[in-house]
Amino acid sequence: MGWRHPADALINGESLLPGAISVVLLAAGLLTTAVGAAPAPQQRAMPCPPAATQQLDGFYRWVFTTADVRGKFPSQKKRFTPELAQQLTAAFALQPSDGRFVDFDPFSNTQVNSYSHRIAACWQEPGDLLRMRVLVLAGLGRSRASEQTLDYRLSREGNSWRIADIHYPGAVSFSLGTFLQQLLQQP
After folding, report:
1. CB under 8 Å, gap of 24 or more: what pairs does 2-7 form?
2. Distance between CA 164 and CA 154 in Å, rounded?
3. Rounded-to-integer distance, Cα 114 and Cα 122, Å
4. Which CATH number covers residue 89?
5. Which of 10, 37, 66, 134 lies 20 to 30 Å from 173 when distance is taken between CA atoms?
6. Does residue 87 belong to any structural domain of this protein?
7. Which residues, 6 or more positions from 139, have their beta carbon under 8 angstroms from its beta carbon?
8. How many angstroms separate the Cα of 157 from the Cα of each of 38, 79, 88, 160?
9. What average pLDDT score do residues 39-68 get?
10. Is 128 contained in some domain?
């Protein structure tokens, strides 16, 4: 089976990973659709906390200036919660010969170059969680690029923020954490 973008597999009700149960993936996709969809209209955006903005801005500066993001990811682990950092490290180590691997850029949800980002809005979530809408300019060339919407979920730890998950809103949305968990559970 060739590479399938997670959303394509979920839309078609197909198994994303060899041996995975389509129903589980479809159910996970439907579950994350409600969670990963745009915030409800009654939710009011709030000013983004400066420390959270600095965390994302610093991370994307690194992404845009680093040639081997996957290989050099360990240098950025401190920006992520321990669980997501561990999942990304393990997933980035997978190769096509393993029969499963991450074949898209999880920081733009594309397979093309990324050029810039902008933080569009923030919403407070229950507990010490923050949702930050980030628009990433990506495409086959800067003149043909378009903005990709990602909803980062950040967790407050003292005075700092860590990336806890990334949701990809769209026709069928999904969560990076759920995708990585399913990818890493396969034999």
Report:
1. 3/103, 5/104, 6/104, 6/174, 6/179, 7/168, 7/170, 7/171, 7/172, 7/173, 7/174
2. 5
3. 22
4. 3.10.450.50
5. 66
6. yes
7. 110, 112, 113, 115, 145, 146
8. 25, 11, 20, 5
9. 88
10. yes
In tens, the pLDDT along 70-90 reads 999 999 999 999 999 999 999
Give me the chain's average pLDDT, please.
82
What is the DSSP track for 17-46?
Answer: STT--HHHHHHHHHHHHHHHSPPPTTSPPB
Give the global pTM: 0.78
The boundaries of the domain holding residue 142 are: 43-171
Residue 27 belongs to some domain of the structure: no
User: ∠ at Cα 158 (92, 151), nearest 5°?
Assistant: 45
Number of domains in the chain: 1
The answer to whether residue 129 is domain-embedded is yes
Q: Cα(137)–Cα(118) distance, rounded to whole angstroms? A: 9
For 93-140, how does the pLDDT look when each residue is reduced to its tens digit (9 = 90+)? Answer: 999 999 999 999 999 999 999 999 999 999 999 999 999 999 999 999
Residue with tokens 């996709």: 29
Q: Which of 22-26, 64-68, 87-91 has the lowest mean pLDDT?
A: 22-26
